[in-house]
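Quick one, tokens below. Sequence please?
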């Protein structure tokens, strides 16, 4: 059964289109179980009715014709109850409704299971048998398991179909894909799909500039591949037994055969060679994977390998940057910082990634560059998006494909308003950040790139509240040496001197992996990350501390911040190492001053020992991104639970108050450097709690200043007191949004989570 399940899901995932996916499901299920009918009913997004979309066993004329309300028939009952219904004789059930066009009067037994994805009913999977019998437990379990696994594949196939339809019908306009907010802002532009070399699945659809040239290019790639295989065969002949050597003959046979012809046929329809090859390979792989014989099934892998080889000869001729259009939207399966290096940033309109989240690196970079980003759009059929017009809403994490005129006009208005807001805010940049009653609440920059320095200064940052040193570590292919680090840190200290610059020690692990220092764990966020790694590796930690201190010899504005502290012991050990690094440098004759030292409060354990921590350092910095994920037990990178990640949860507000109270009792300043500090509604609460400074992405600085300058401390405290009485984040947000509107900041409300 497991094997069957795996194969069905795999085949559905590889289906060329939505209808093929449905047909695979009904054919395979009917073929594998002892049943007479397998059908799929799906809920139409427009009419909300259940429509028979595919069947093996019912009359084919009824497919697409039979429809019912969720309140009708047995299929409707499965849908409305959201649980399986197993009947020996369906016609005796009071909810039975007979559709003559299906010819289902012959079938007595009925088993229906709902297909649900993230609480949303997609449809119902039904099996029937002509004999009156209850389906046994094994059948029920199999169908439930299959339906649960298929929901993602069905959504994906449905989405692909909607956007790829040649003749978009009304329903194919404004196709919405849901992800998570990566970087704020809205954008309209054409998709440019980033593909990974030699990865067939990441190849986008693209029109070939000329069919004849494309055919010639493909022929050359095939020839080059043939020569390569012949060369491999010759080289390995003496080493391999004859049967293994025969593998190369099989490859050569496949090359001379239909793989080439079918790809050429596809190229003749206008598709570029890599796209045509991708489809042919997928088709062939499916044929092999369908085979009962395990040996033959494995041959699918050979075809894939062959496809990759041909692809590698096709792609180098392509310019990786391509003709990136003005305002182009970079789309990819799993975009990384290195993809960004390949595109002309000045022309980049937005970023969309099928994986990742708001705290993925590319999202952090997007915020620094002021480019909207949507992450974790898991239903996204990336390869189908090339050159399509996309609307990106980086505030809400939404993407719209094939926009209709009304939605496009609405987005144009939003883009215009954003621009006006930005222009208006620019004048605020150099004004001090103080509440209306004159309490200064400096706004600093979160950074991790040297490229951020100029924009940070221009945006009116009053220092750097968080410099994520892991960024220079991640974009290299080895640990940067001490001197390399000194150079980076010195530049940033010099640029902001005399304003404070807070360098955070290396915080890798969790979702931030170093390519050259892989850490594999079942629970990376609860594992070896941040200070836990650096304390275990003094040979990495000490050179970093030394580099920071050396950089501060000429500039006395250094502050050092330790991440992920969860015990007092970790802080004490970190301080010992910092003192040791300083002693070493003093011994070497360098007059390094003692910097201010801070600790990040981003683990719930630290909240409850905040006073003990605060007594031993100069300042506290609250990392709300992690603190909220740990408090609410919601992975900050998981799009499935992104709706539960709410910084305005009463628990997170209470935790922040505890930290602020602890800091006040010890007389130590406290800053907030997580994304929450850039959320206009949340800022009011942070002001009410008495936070001393905020640190946010460069692009958010002017708006944060605007909020600070619009409220008095008394008003913020009063609003905080009102929020304490509310029980859920939605009520809290709505109260604060109203306060923003009343204060004349309605333009910022959309930027909040809604
Ligand atoms: C945080 O956790 O809030 C934080 C600022 O650190 P990072 O996002 O780099 O984990
Ligand atoms: Mg953190």
């Amino acid at each position: 059964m497991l094997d069957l399940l795996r194969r069905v899901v795999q085949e559905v995932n590889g289906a060329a289109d939505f209808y093929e996916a449905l047909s695979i499901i009904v054919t395979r299920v009917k073929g594998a179980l002892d049943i007479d009918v397998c059908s799929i009913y799906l809920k139409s997004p427009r009419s909300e009715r259940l429509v028979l979309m595919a069947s093996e066993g019912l009359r084919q004329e009824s497919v697409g014709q039979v429809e019912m309300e969720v309140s009708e028939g047995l299929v409707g009952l499965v849908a409305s109850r959201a649980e399986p219904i197993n009947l020996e004789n369906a016609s005796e059930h009071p909810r039975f409704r007979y559709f003559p066009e299906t010819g289902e009067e012959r079938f007595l037994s009925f088993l229906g299971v709902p297909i649900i994805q993230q609480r949303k009913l997609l449809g119902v999977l039904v099996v029937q048998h002509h004999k009156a019998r209850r389906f046994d437990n094994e059948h029920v379990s199999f169908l439930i398991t299959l339906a649960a696994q298929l929901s993602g594949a069905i959504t994906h196939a449905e989405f692909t179909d909607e956007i790829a339809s040649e003749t978009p019908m009304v329903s194919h306009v404004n196709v919405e894909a849901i992800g998570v907010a990566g970087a704020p802002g809205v954008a309209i532009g054409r998709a440019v799909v980033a593909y990974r070399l030699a990865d067939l699945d990441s190849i986008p659809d693209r029109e070939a500039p000329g069919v004849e040239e494309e055919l010639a290019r493909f022929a050359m790639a095939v020839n080059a591949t043939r020569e390569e295989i012949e060369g491999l065969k010759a080289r390995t002949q003496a080493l391999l037994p004859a049967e293994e050597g025969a593998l190369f003959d099989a490859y050569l046979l496949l090359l001379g055969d239909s793989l080439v012809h079918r790809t050429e046929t596809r190229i003749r329809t206008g598709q570029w060679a890599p796209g045509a090859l991708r489809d042919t390979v997928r088709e062939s792989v499916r044929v092999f994977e369908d085979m009962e014989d395990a040996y033959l099934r494995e041959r699918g892998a050979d075809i894939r390998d062959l496809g990759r080889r041909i692809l590698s000869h096709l792609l180098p001729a392509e310019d990786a940057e391509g003709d990136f259009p003005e305002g182009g939207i970079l789309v990819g399966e799993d975009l990384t910082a290195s993809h960004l290096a390949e595109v002309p940033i000045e022309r980049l309109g937005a970023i969309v990634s099928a994986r990742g989240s708001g705290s993925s690196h590319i999202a952090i970079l997007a915020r620094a560059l002021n480019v909207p980003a949507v992450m974790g759009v898991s239903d996204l059929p990336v390869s189908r998006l090339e050159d399509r017009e996309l609307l990106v809403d980086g505030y809400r994490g939404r993407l719209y494909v094939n926009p209709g005129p009304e939605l496009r006009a609405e987005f144009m208005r939003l883009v215009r308003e954003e621009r006006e807001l930005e222009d208006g805010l620019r004048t605020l940049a150099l004004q001090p950040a103080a509440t209306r009653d004159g309490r200064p609440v400096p706004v600093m920059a979160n950074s991790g790139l040297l490229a951020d320095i100029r924009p940070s200064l221009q945006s009116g940052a009053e220092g750097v509240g968080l410099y994520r040193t892991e960024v220079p570590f991640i974009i290299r292919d080895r640990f940067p040496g001490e001197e390399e680090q000194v150079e980076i840190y010195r530049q940033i200290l010099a640029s902001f001197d005399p304003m404070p610059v807070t360098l955070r020690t290396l915080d890798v692990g969790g979702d931030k992996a170093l390519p050259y220092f892989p850490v594999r764990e079942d629970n990376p966020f609860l594992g070896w990350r941040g200070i836990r790694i650096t304390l275990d590796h003094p040979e990495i930690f000490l050179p970093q501390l030394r580099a920071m201190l050396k950089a501060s010899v000429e500039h006395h504005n250094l502050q050092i911040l330790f991440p992920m502290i969860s015990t007092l012991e970790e802080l004490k050990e970190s301080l010992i190492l910092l003192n040791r690094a300083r002693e070493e440098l003093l011994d070497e004759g360098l007059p390094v001053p003692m910097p201010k030292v801070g600790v990040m409060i981003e683990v719930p354990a630290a909240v409850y020992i905040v006073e003990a921590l605060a007594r031993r350092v100069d300042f506290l910095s609250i990392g709300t991104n992690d603190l909220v994920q740990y408090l609410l037990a919601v992975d900050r990178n998981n799009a499935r639970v992104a709706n539960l990640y709410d910084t305005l949860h009463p628990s997170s507000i209470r935790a922040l108050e505890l930290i602020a109270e602890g800091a006040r009792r010890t007389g130590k300043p406290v800053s907030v450097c997580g994304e929450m500090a850039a959320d206009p509604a949340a800022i009011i609460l942070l002001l009410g709690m008495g936070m001393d400074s905020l640190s946010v992405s460069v692009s958010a600085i002017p708006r944060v200043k605007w909020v600070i300058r619009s409220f008095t401390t008394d008003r913020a405290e009063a609003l905080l007191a009102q929020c304490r009485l509310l029980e859920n984040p939605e009520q809290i947000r709505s109260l604060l949004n109203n306060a923003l509107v009343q204060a004349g900041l309605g333009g910022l409300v959309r930027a909040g989570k809604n």
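The pocket of magnesium ion (ligand 2) is lined by residues 563, 602, 623, 625-626 (CB under 6 Å). The mean pLDDT is 87.
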